[in-house]
Amino acid sequence: MSENSEASHSETNSSVPAKPQPRITPWAEPLWQGCAEGKLRLPYCDQCEACFYYPRLWCPQCFNQDLSWQDVSGKGKVYSFSVIHQSPLASYQEDVPYVLAVIELAEGPRMMTNVVNCEVDTVCVDMPVEVTFEARGDMTIPQFQAVAQGEK
Amino acid sequence: MQNPVAIAAVSEMKPGRYPDKSGYDLYLEVVRQFLAEWSIKPSDIQDLLACPAGMAEGGSNDIFVHEQLYEELGIHPLFADTMNAGGSTYGLMVQRAALAIERGLAESVLCIGAGKFPKVSTGGGESMARMVSHEIYEFPYGTFIPALYAQVASRHMFEYGTTPEQFAEVAVSSRAWALKNPDAVMYDSEALTVAKVRESRSIATPFHLYDCSIPVEGGAAVLVTSASVAKRFSEQPAYLLGMGEYHSHRNIHQAPSLTDVGCRTAGQQAYQAAGLSPSDIDFAEIYDAFSVNPLVFMEDLGLCEKGKGGAFFESGASRPGGDFPVDTYGGLLSYGHTGDASGMSMIVEGARQIMGIAGERQLDKANAGIVHSYGGMMSEHSTLILGRQA
Questions:
Q1: Contacts of A113 in chain B (CB under 8 A)
Q2: Is residue A136 part of a domain?
Q3: CATH code: domain of residue B346
Q4: Mean pLDDT of B7-20
């Protein structure tokens, strides 16, 4: 490969950079700890009796700062999605086509993730999904996949 | 409004690629063209609002751009700032200027913007994705701008049965207008068809290449004044009849609804302030980073029934000669998206149509028009209603 062929540079395996690893903020540590244990653990407000996402220092509904954490079902539905056929992100080139989606959890909060382990053409809005976990560097991050048939 | 405010003068440099000019150089060119075009004297400009022009160059260090510009102009404002709200920056500049003029704090406020747009293929796509998606809770999933907008399009398709072909109709309409605008990037190109849009390469479903705006560089200036001052510049100023803004979310997954992202609320405020209803509006200039935007925002601005935006564009009403023209300068889709300055283009065009100086594309009926722009991932919204009578 010539040195000036920047555009095709990212197509070589050796030069594919690692996918971005989320930065861990102190108030979000239980989320990532939960992922490492295979659980989707979200901040919970006792006053609102509701989980929220993403983790914050206060409940966005009532400003309560005395928050706890709750393991949620990990079940949800695709609220919306897009199948990516061309991505500018070097670290995602080998995943193309991939699915970027907004998931609505059964408990209410929405999350942005990928929908993984599927044919991209099978993904649709309202499709039942469940959490799965992906190793990302030394972290574990939540992802979603179609609910296995018969488990809906 | 109590003390009428107007857009007295507008100027926009031809969008294109200006590799030898920095963001600030573009600013100077915008000002130079504006001063020359309207024979502006120093006493004509009291105050100044500007926007950082270097965001798309990878983070802005020119957050004091207004200081440099008022010094170069040789004016000493009582009211000045560098502000930023993405694509809604300039709509909100007009609104901030109008508030200051209404309160008697200012009489003529020059609102200026200039923008660079990095090439997507050389890292620009990634740097912009980092800018517009949550660093921790979105970006690690391979986000980039078309894929984030596509979330709104896919949800609209699900809730209302809108089709990719209907989104494509928006791009077809904008191209038809661009062919009438010598400043448009696609002026010398050919008409689009739904088939051509759908046959262009797929980027992020449901969007193909021609559903996406064209990244270029440029800038514009808008002089907002009291109605009495406006008459010095133009026989027919564009009076600001109503305005509204709304800030909904930052990250698209946090939008309370992907089919009601904030445009509706801003629009309602503007109609209420103007004492007008959608049936009083003759045309719309709607920020269109992607084909989805005008389709959805026609609905949210009450200009067609919710869920019927697709049918509206399919009908051809938005095109030249149609009953309700939309994005008459070619839109960001075919006029060009000037990065940090993109939110200027629809204001400049809305004012030109009202002022009757829109050239070959001048509308026969332009007594009142609506200009909607937004910033971020359809995060924050500005609606202006402009008209011929204060």
A1: 141
A2: yes
A3: 3.40.47.10
A4: 96
- Domain holding A131, by residue range, is 23-146
Burial B308-338, CB ≥16 within 10 A → b, else e: bbbbbbbeebbbeebebbbbbbbbbbbbbbb
Contact A100 B141 (CB under 8 A): yes
Split into its structural domains, chain A has a count of: 1
Q: Residue ranges of the alpha helices (H) in B74-163? A: 89-102, 124-132, 145-160
Q: What is the pLDDT of residues A56-86, one digit of tens each?
A: 999 999 999 999 999 999 999 999 999 999 9
Percent of chain A clearing pLDDT 70 (strictly above): 88
Among residues B251, B250, B335, B235, the alpha carbon closest in space to that of B285 is found at B335
Complex ipTM above 0.85?
yes
Residue B48 domain-assigned? yes
Q: Which domain holds residue B21?
A: 5-119+214-387
- Give a yes or no: residue B187 inside a domain: no
A77 SS3 class: strand
Q: How far is CA A32 from CA A141, B3, B145, in A?
A: 7, 55, 26
Mark yes or no for CB contact B142/A81 under 8 Å: no
CA–CA dist B241, B22 (Å, integer): 36
Q: Give the number of A-B residue pairs with CB atoms closer than 8 Å.
A: 115
